[in-house]
Amino acid sequence: MTDAIHRRGWIKGVAASLTGLWLAACNRINDNPDVQKTLLKAEGLNRRVHRALIDRKALAKEFTAADISKDFKANGSISPGDKPYRDHLMAGFKDYRLVIDGLVDHPMELSLADIHALPSRSQITRHDCVEGWSSIGKWTGARLGPLLDRAGLKREARYLVFHCFDTLGAATDGSNQYYESIDLIDAYHPQTILAYQMNDAVLPVGHGAPLRLRVERQLGYKQAKYIARIEAVSDFKSLHGGKGGFWEDRGYEWYAGI
Ligand SMILES: Nc1nc2c(c(=O)[nH]1)N[C@H]1C(S)=C(S)[C@@H](COP(=O)(O)O)O[C@H]1N2
Ligand SMILES: [Mo]
């Protein structure tokens, strides 16, 4: 107790002397136009970084049940023909396991039942595709943030890569496998979920069964469907085309914020 009081007194003392130093420094700074200019610049930069961060953490607009689109367009792959996917689909996904690996302390393999037991969220949001169409749907799924906490991201982890089951086009060497990546700000955004339901029904094949990403502050192509594996990485230069996503490798922006 007395120790604590002493410590508080000591801290107060340090604070007071720091304040004194700071005031003295301020006076000196105020006298020096060059230092002032630099400071103003730094402050402007900080403010911009800060504002950008706040903006990235803002929630995407949520809608009401009445706004849900009657006919939510299914786009890109809508019925993957890839054998591993077909096998899972035929078996009702009973042997499906979501793999979480890469730069994590506890690699995981989760069944759909495991995923359903995780902290979840529902949201009615608008999906915007670069092709120029939008649809509103309700998504329910496991929140990615708490799941990553369980997996335990290593310090070097900076991005999550979503490896999908589907390939697009004719190549047979795996170079046309769909994949996407997001940074940790989006990964921990409260509306970022691994969706297993759409409009209160089991996620249909056309929309990414059994599991698809909803990262609501980004355009359609970031919303990886048919997720097989989530890999934590420090960078994605050595993956596929090196640009962090199927469409990014073909010229789209990696950051598709909306
Ligand atoms: N695995 C996979 N994910 C994908 C795609 C795809 O072809 N394969 N297409 C993307 C694009 S361009 C869009 S607009 C959305 C479409 O999602 P929807 O079918 O639910 O509308 O999925 C995205 N995620
Ligand atoms: Mo899209």
Structural write-up:
- With 258 residues, the protein is α+β, with helices and mostly antiparallel strands.
- The protein has 2 domains: 1-54, no CATH class; 61-250, Alpha-Beta Complex (Sulfite Oxidase, Chain A, domain 2).
- It has helices spanning 2-31, 33-57, 83-90, 112-116, 144-151, 184-187; strands spanning 98-102, 108-110, 120-128, 134-143, 159-167, 177-183, 193-198, 201-202, 212-214, 227-233.
- Strand 7 (193-198) and strand 8 (201-202) form a beta hairpin.
- The ligand Nc1nc2c(c(=O)[nH]1)N[C@H]1C(S)=C(S)[C@@H](COP(=O)(O)O)O[C@H]1N2 binds next to strand 5.
Oligomer: single chain
**CATH domain class of the largest domain:** Alpha Beta
Structure annotation, total helices? 6
Q: Ends: how far apart?
A: 53 Å
Q: Order of SSEs, N→C?
A: HHHEEHEEHEEHEEEE
| CATH superfamily grouping of the largest domain | Oxidoreductase, molybdopterin-binding domain
Strand content: 15-25%
What is the fold named in CATH at topology level of the largest domain? Sulfite Oxidase, Chain A, domain 2
Per DSSP E runs of 2 or more residues, the count of β-strands stands at: 10
Number of individual domains: 2
Main sheet summary: 5 strands, mixed
Major sheet: arrangement of strands? 2-1-10-5-6
Structural category is alpha+beta
Helix content: 25-40%
Are any ligands bound, and if so which?
ligand MTE, molybdenum atom
Annotated CATH architecture of the largest domain? Alpha-Beta Complex
3D shape? globular
Q: Mean pLDDT, rounded to whole units? A: 89
Radius of gyration: 24 Å
Low-confidence stretches: 14-20
